[in-house]
Amino acid sequence: MKVTIYDVAKQAGVSIATVSKVINNTGRMRESTRKRVLETMEELNYRPNVMASALMGKRTETIGLLVQDISNPLFSEVARTIEDRAHERGMNVIICSTDANREKEKKYVELLMRKQVDGLIMGSSFHDKKLLQELISDGFPLAMLTHDDSSLPVSTVSVDDFKGGYEAASHHLFNGHRRIAIIAEHAYSSNFRISGYQAAHKAYGVECREEYFYRTHGTIENGKKYFEKLFHRKDIAPPTAIFACNDQLAIGVIQGAKAQGLGIPEDLSVIGFDNTILATTTVPGLTTVAQPIVTMGKKIVDVLVDEIQAGRSLRERVLYNPELIVRGTTYAAKESAANMKPL
Amino acid sequence: MKVTIYDVAKQAGVSIATVSKVINNTGRMRESTRKRVLETMEELNYRPNVMASALMGKRTETIGLLVQDISNPLFSEVARTIEDRAHERGMNVIICSTDANREKEKKYVELLMRKQVDGLIMGSSFHDKKLLQELISDGFPLAMLTHDDSSLPVSTVSVDDFKGGYEAASHHLFNGHRRIAIIAEHAYSSNFRISGYQAAHKAYGVECREEYFYRTHGTIENGKKYFEKLFHRKDIAPPTAIFACNDQLAIGVIQGAKAQGLGIPEDLSVIGFDNTILATTTVPGLTTVAQPIVTMGKKIVDVLVDEIQAGRSLRERVLYNPELIVRGTTYAAKESAANMKPL
DNA sequence: GAAAATAGATTAAGCGCTTAACTAAAAATA
DNA sequence: TATTTTTAGTTAAGCGCTTAATCTATTTTC
């Protein structure tokens, strides 16, 4: 049967309170007693029951991680660093994929609350803002990754999406491109990437055309689909460059382009976002805007755990710099050999 | 403050036992009473505390999933289907990445046991066989994915690795290749893939040369590295085809080959294994042996949950058929235009 | 050497729930 | 109508732990 604190106490010839004290390293006792209890625990292969101690108001040492889809490389890479850091900090992680679906978000939050998780990391946009505000006003430990909504009094860790968008567009513009399409995601962060893209155009004195702008879910299929939309429009000249707001979209674009016989980057330059493993597996490698995934994953755990330990919101806002990783999918546009500078 | 069963009981004017009964749908009571309690629960936004009920011997409705590395696409894809199915069955999943490291395996198993998880899924090879046997003989609900060790009395779900290896090698052989290298993983399943590869050679009357056999960890870097090893050996003619035992290795091989100026598949045919998202993002697409990931993920959860509910090991062994997905990285060998048949 | 302080341990209450045992009232049976 | 059975609910113990309150030596202080 299960070994309980009573078994240990009996065997060691002390009370359960004493055993509890050695478990938690609290109170005072003779060194010999501590040692004897420790040995007995070892001997009986005793494992304290987390449920019972959680019932007494201790932490469950479990945090919930809500992501859109753990099978998406960005999230699985983030999840891995979160998991590792959480373990270092003595916590387990329950991962839930919400599919950016309100119902699931709600269901999983409820479930996680019932399990008494100590805190929650929102791994990307969380759509049910009302539920979010409820959690926040309940003082529940919360940290948001990649969703820097300044209207919410929560700790956030994210990348400077504006800058990322700016750098991606600037790279294209610098390379002489003047017709640069953007395929954005239905995500909060995309708003900033779009703004950055627009700001870069302004800096270069290039008009930003509505016709080159699409917004969709960030899948490979959609990348392909919107590439085709872009290239089958009769009203506009096709773009010579595309800024896709995640790597999957970029890869879809590349696949669509290659299927049409277009050369990458000779005929079309493509930039992605995230620098997931996918960006490294294409040949040529995908030029993309890197998020410091490992750093961010670590940080979000630290922020959350600090908050849990402090017992109140620390409202930390951390913004990391994105980095443009130039690989093989971007190149000077045909119509302009000379590289360009902003105005 | 937290709403407890007492609050509900008081408000509804019943005893906590009655409330408990409506929560668990047990015992009998007037319909009007049940309804009143239900309404009160709703009204107070009451969420039963899983810890407390777990303490009373109920399930925690949590299962642990141990994988090598959740950031590896194969595992993240599997994890996603496991997660979904588990949720359908009313359970949460705690994911732990072991890095195929004994220490971590042990540490995470301990942690999960302390958290009273109802069962464990071993998502790939589990190295600490002793610990495994301990768990099994303790009667702890366990299911193994992709690790069909017949010496262990556990339920397993896996793909027919022998057949997968056989089909991969046969495809190369059929295409006329006679120098087919194999890069295997340090995983239990690789043994069968290797056997299948050897059996196919036998069927075609082709000698299997030791020099074309390597074993390593299944990363992109290692794919590249072993491609180079293979092509810089002076003692043997380089292979015209490679069977890599996972997609990452295959991609590494392709990257190495392209870096050397080799054309894929004209100069080198490559087959991977797993059919992860990575196999679809390369251009041309990677020919690979598909595991029915979704089916397997679902099944392993069902097996485990059935076992948990039955309260004893069902010792189910499920073997799925792999499927060779021919994409663009395999082609007839130069030295033989005609396709070949087995003896 | 008596009072006060300290060290080392125990007792007992209680966390939020489940459930076996019980009770009281209503319904069925004799 | 009296007795048995059924229904609808309650009481109370206990799951494995934490911790404040308590207790008993043993030391320290003056």
From TrEMBL, chains A, B:
Classification via InterPro entries: HTH_LacI, LacI/GalR-like_sensor, Lambda_DNA-bd_dom_sf, Peripla_BP_I
Enumerate the SUPFAM superfamilies for this protein: lambda repressor-like DNA-binding domains, Periplasmic binding protein-like I
Cross-referenced PROSITE patterns, in alphabetical order? HTH_LACI_1 (PS00356), HTH_LACI_2 (PS50932)
Q: Which Pfam families match?
A: LacI, Peripla_BP_3
Q: Where is the HTH lacI-type domain?
A: 3-57
Recite the UniProt keywords alphabetically. Answer: DNA-binding, Transcription, Transcription regulation
Taxonomy, superkingdom: Bacteria
What GO MF annotations does this protein's record show? Answer: DNA-binding transcription factor activity; transcription cis-regulatory region binding
Q: TM spans, by residue?
A: none
Designated name of the protein: Transcriptional regulator, LacI family
